[in-house]
Structures are given as C-alpha cells and as structure tokens.
Design a protein that fits this description.
It is a single chain. The chain is an alpha/beta fold and 348 residues long. The protein folds into two domains: 62 residues, 2-Layer Sandwich (Alpha-Beta Plaits), CATH 3.30.70.1140; 262 residues, Aldolase class I (TIM Barrel, Alpha-Beta Barrel), CATH 3.20.20.70. It is built from eleven helices and 15 strands. The strands form three sheets. Strands 13-12-11-10-9-8-7-14-15 form a nine-stranded parallel sheet. A four-stranded antiparallel sheet has the order 2-3-1-4. Strand 10, helix 6 and strand 11 form a beta-alpha-beta unit. It starts with a strand and ends with a helix. The mean pLDDT is 95. It binds phosphoenolpyruvate and manganese (II) ion. Phosphoenolpyruvate binds next to loops.
Length: 348
C-alpha cells in the first residue's frame, strides 16, 4: 500500500500515519521527495483499508497494489476455478461452455417440462426458472415460490437436467437447497451483503449476476463476499448494465467485461443475452459474442408460449426458435472448444 501525503502535510501528520501503520503491524519505508512525501507500507491489509487511512489529515491518496478482491483474484489462484456437479457436468477452465435455459418464471408444470425436454434434446445442462421473482413493480407477477421449485425438481428428475433458481431471501436458502442444484443471486441483490454472506455459507454453487450499475470491481467484490464466507463455487454472470441508451436494448451488454474478468479472476463467467438485450432477435448474436470472447456458458430464457408468459415474454425464445438458435450455438461452442484445445496443445 502506498500513501501519498499532501504537498503541505506536516511532519506531525506523517508521523501519525506512520505510527498507526506500525501499530497495525506494517513495515514502513518513508520517502521524502522534493514535493510529496510517500509512505510505502507492507503488511496485511485485511484490517486497514485505504478508506481508514484517508481519514487522516494530510493524506492525499492511498493506493493499493493488490486487487481488493483477494480471493477472487488470479493473484491468489492462477488456475481457473472449475465447478463440478455430481452428474459430471463441469463449468469453467477448458471445459465446453454450458447452457442454462428455461422460463423467466416457472408457471405450470406442463409448460416447464416442454422447455426442459427441448433443452435436454439440444444438449443443455441446466434448467433455470424463477420461483421468487424480483420485480420492479409490486403489481407484477412475483413467482409461485416453493410450488415452482417442486416443478423444477420434478422436471429435473424427468430429464436429468441440473436446476437453477433465484434466491431473494436468506431464510429461503435451506428450503431451496432441497429442490435445486444452483442458487442464483439476481442483479438487484448484488449488494445485498447479508444475502451474499448467507449463500457464502451454503454448499450449493452460486450464479452471481452483475448489478445494474456494478463496476467490474464492485462485481468482483460482491463475489468476494460469497467467497469470504467459505463458498468457493461462484459463477459470475454478465447480464448487461444500465447506460444512457435504453431505446433499442433493455441494457448495454458489456461484452468486454468477460475477457477483463477472465484476466482478473479465476472464477468462471457466463453470459445472459436475454436480460442483457431484452430482445428476442438479439439473443443469438449476443450469445455468440459472449462465447467468442471466452464465456464459460450461456443463460437464455425460453418459454413454451412467450405471448402468455407472466414475465419477460418479449425476450423469451419460443421452443422452435430456441432449437434453431441452440443448434447454431452448439456448433460455435464445438468449434471454439476445438480451437482452444488445439491452441493450448500448441502452447504446451
Ligand atoms: C432473471 O434472471 O430472471 C432476472 C430477473 O435477471 P436479472 O437479475 O439479471 O435482472
Ligand atoms: Mn427474466
């Protein structure tokens, strides 16, 4: 950590900072330049954050050299995290990208099963459906709760697909874990720290969506909250962010965040073009874009009858369109996987 003092800082102010850091176990190198004084502090930064040092009079700037998201950082773990499920499905590393599909909300069993059967037929690994829906308006459909989870479990038993559903309240986690394989934290809860800690204590993998206005650092710090509570199985999900232009797309998909996060973190990251764009016709091109830049999976909303869907019908793919799109995405995934393997074989 480097502390740069103000140009007119006094020796007493500098000494106060140095004493505080020494008391906190830091080794100090103190350099007096012609204009600025710089204090170089080496030690454990878990207790002393830049924020605390900024409170001292005379401190101009505090820079930390290591990423603030320690556990999520590649500095801590150079190899990709690979999450493996009991049925052998793996997410991350050199594994083929996974596909997570399903309706925004679970509505009825027959409809869900139609989607699940199509997903299975197209080689997808996960069925996803909302039981607890975070809706902007309290008058919109809020989800069927536990009944929806029962349907997910039943569809999973029927097809062998793994299941994903969003958790909104820490008190639901234990109940949800009886029915599903992966907990999702939605964009609106990315800074609900108590919920992050609660899923951090759970033994189910977690899909963490990027918040509507999360920077990449904030997104990785949200993952850090989960990791720091003991759950190493976090899957990040780029789902677009708010920007000034919302006319043609629901959000702005930050495709570059995928290779940026791959560079910064060992955690797997998937792409969600459904919430990223809000437009049916944009799902295929943006899913392809995500795969090309290295996403470890895709998440797509599919409904057996989008016109009657209780949420997100506009962006949901009807089953015939899903099958066509998925067929092409599978070809792309196969080609990219082949390419990746050849490239790594060449490097070795
Ligand atoms: C969802 O996955 O259905 C959802 C509500 O997504 P997000 O949290 O990304 O808005
Ligand atoms: Mn949705």
């Amino acid at each position: 950590m480097i502390i740069i003092m103000e140009r007119n800082s006094t020796e007493a102010q500098e000494q106060k900072v140095i004493d505080f850091l020494k008391e906190s176990g830091f080794d100090i190198r103190h350099k007096k330049g012609e204009i600025y004084t710089v204090i170089d502090a080496i030690g454990d930064k878990t207790t002393i954050t830049p924020d605390r040092l900024s409170a001292f009079d005379g401190v101009k700037e505090v820079k930390i050299i290591r990423d603030p998201f320690r556990l999520a950082s590649r500095d801590r773990k150079a190899d990709d995290t690979v999450i493996e499920f009991a049925n052998g499905v793996k997410i991350g590393g050199d594994n083929k990208p996974v596909s997570i599909v399903g309706p925004c909300s679970v509505e009825d069993y027959e409809g869900l099963l139609k989607v699940a059967v199509a997903a299975k037929e197209m080689g997808c690994e996960f069925l996803r459906g909302g039981a607890f829906k975070p809706r902007t308006s309290p008058y919109d459909f809020q989800g069927y709760g536990e009944q929806a989870l029962k349907f997910l479990k039943q569809a999973s038993e029927e097809t062998g697909l793994l299941t994903v559903s969003e958790v909104m309240d820490a008190s639901d986690i234990d109940m949800m874990c009886d029915y599903i394989d992966v907990l999702q934290i939605g964009a609106r809860n990315v800074q609900n720290f108590k919920l992050l800690h609660a899923v951090g204590k759970s033994n189910k993998p977690v899909i963490l969506k990027r918040g509507l206005s999360s920077t990449i650092t904030e997104f990785l710090l949200a993952a850090e909250h989960i990791l720091s509570y003991g759950n190493p199985n976090v899957i990040l999900c780029e789902r677009g962010i708010r920007s000034f232009d919302g006319k043609y797309t629901r959000n702005v998909m930050d495709i570059a965040s995928i290779p940026v996060i791959k560079k910064l973190s060992h955690l797997p990251i998937i792409v969600d073009p459904s919430h990223g764009t809000g437009q049916r016709y944009l799902i295929e091109p943006m899913a392809k874009a995500g795969l090309v830049v290295g996403a470890d999976g895709i998440m797509i909303e599919v409904h057996h009858n989008p016109e009657k869907a209780l949420s997100d019908g506009k962006q949901s793919l009807p089953i015939p369109m899903f099958k066509e799109v998925m067929g092409r995405l599978n070809k792309l995934s196969d080609a990219l996987h082949y390419e990746k393997n050849c490239l790594s074989a060449n490097i070795v």
